[in-house]
Amino acid sequence: MNSFPGIAAVTSFVLNSNNELGVTAFGSIFQIGWAFAIGIAFAVITCASTSGGHFNPALTICFATWQEFPWRKVPHYIFSQIFGAFVAGLLLMGMYWPQIQEFKAATLAEGKHLVANGGPASILCTFPNPDQTSLARLVFIEFLVDSYVGIVVWACLDPANPFVTPAGVPFAIGLAYATMIWGFADISISMNLARDLGTRIVAAMFFGREAFTYMNYSWIGILVNVPATLFGTGYYEFLMRDSFSQIGKGHAMHEEEEEGLLRPIANTGVIETGAANALSLDTDRLSEELSLREQRNP
Prior knowledge:
This protein is mostly helical. The protein has 14 helices and no strands.
């Protein structure tokens, strides 16, 4: 459910790349980002009350690791997530079948590959650009993007976080994904094991097994998401979660309250003596003034 609007926007964008009206009439990276964001938000709103709103296997594993989600349920959730993306890919192929077949024929007539970035198969899953030959760099990109999303998701779900209301959580999480799409879609990102694997199976069914072998990329789009999200959520658990708890407690106070603030910050005794003398002088002056007032106004 969360993938369907996003991959539909990608399909419209790719299929109309050579349209005489111009591709911007049918889509853009900006539109694709919003389609994924709103799709994720609507999916969370619809399903969170029954299933917890898990649509990414990496996040399900993080919930089991950090939040005591039952491990026995993890395989069932992951299968459902991958199957949901698979069904979304099949539905998309059916809805756009005439346009996809026309685009496929045109691609073959031009001597281009069906499985490549910008090719018919790319409406379903991610393929790297031809010049992205460094697998290490692709892993680095995917890892940082997924870690970022993991941190934001965990911050949104932190009950001690005063900056996100429960009603705003679905949209904040959706925007985290959209932000990464706007920033890094042009250099190949996946961000969801289920969405990539489920739709990649559909791409292999209709465009060939090269969907899994093209530039040896598929394992990056499928697997890197899990350790990266674990890293991001773990970073939040160990280094950031208590920060929001402290914010909720109010401003800092000296453990000995006001008396502690009058103590010296050095061991010279000058500050303490000076402060004491100043207080003593102020007290004496105040007593003298009160005494004079009483004498004038008996």
